[in-house]
Amino acid sequence: MKAYVYAPEGAAISDVAQPTPKGTQVLVRVRACALNRADTGMRKGHVHGAAGGVGTVLGMEWAGEVAALGPDAQGVKVGDRIMGSGAAAFAEYTLADHGRLFRTPSNMNFEEAATLPVALATMHNAVVTVGGIQPGQSVLIQGASSGVGLMAMQIAKLKGAKLVIGSSTDAHRRSRLTDYGADLAIDSSDPGWVDQVLKATGGEGVDLIVDQVSGKVASQNLAATRVKGRIVNVGRLGGTHADFNFDLHAARRIDYVGVTFRTRTIEEIREIFEEVRKDIWSAVEARKLQLPIDKVFAFDDIDEAFAHMEANKHLGKIVVTL
Where is the Enoyl reductase (ER) domain (predicted)? Predict the structure, then answer.
């Protein structure tokens, strides 16, 4: 089968053996897959959790059809249209744990479905389960113009947030944030952004920050969070190390939690997917939670898809079809 494989001389489409499902695994005939920021690092040889290195089939999320079942797989049958996340998505066939997938709604095509699994699982966990958003509260999404950021704002609105603030350093993308749930859009590279947040919250700060940027905004986030507020760190695109004002953290008694899928067990991931199904799946089926597709590429043009992502001018998801 065709697959997009990492090698030191550069990732490329190669012929590899089709995998066989074991245990609770499902074999998926992939019809579309979406790019994520972590893919760009792995394409350059970086390790992402336990994944990476020579011979790694890249990719993290997909949509397709069940082609075969492992002996212990439950909940789906051959031919079902599904979407999910996991390793080795950029291939004609991939394997997925039966608890790490969703049924694709009948009103959704493969390209649309491929945009959703990572964003839904990541941001329902960050905004609702860990972030504990409640009706009437205020939330700031740092890095809101990414696919997961756009989903975070929509989930916050769905759960009754009274004020949703989104950040983007790109003026065009910032102007689009109100289309996806933002009441206020800010530029986190502007030194005055904390004052804008405080003004919008009557001087108190937001109840919750979901941070995909960190780096230099880490201590600014503390200043923008109310006393006994919460910060959930999801990403570190702005840097993994920075100054951190421990005194301000303590004075505001902020709950600061870091989250990642890289160190979660399969049992924990299954639970996250189940929470999405129980809590917000009806909104997915009703198309209340969806992501824009910036551009679709054929699988043979996957290098062009990565060049488009690395140009960093897109809004929403970049999709590759097989």
Answer: 10-320
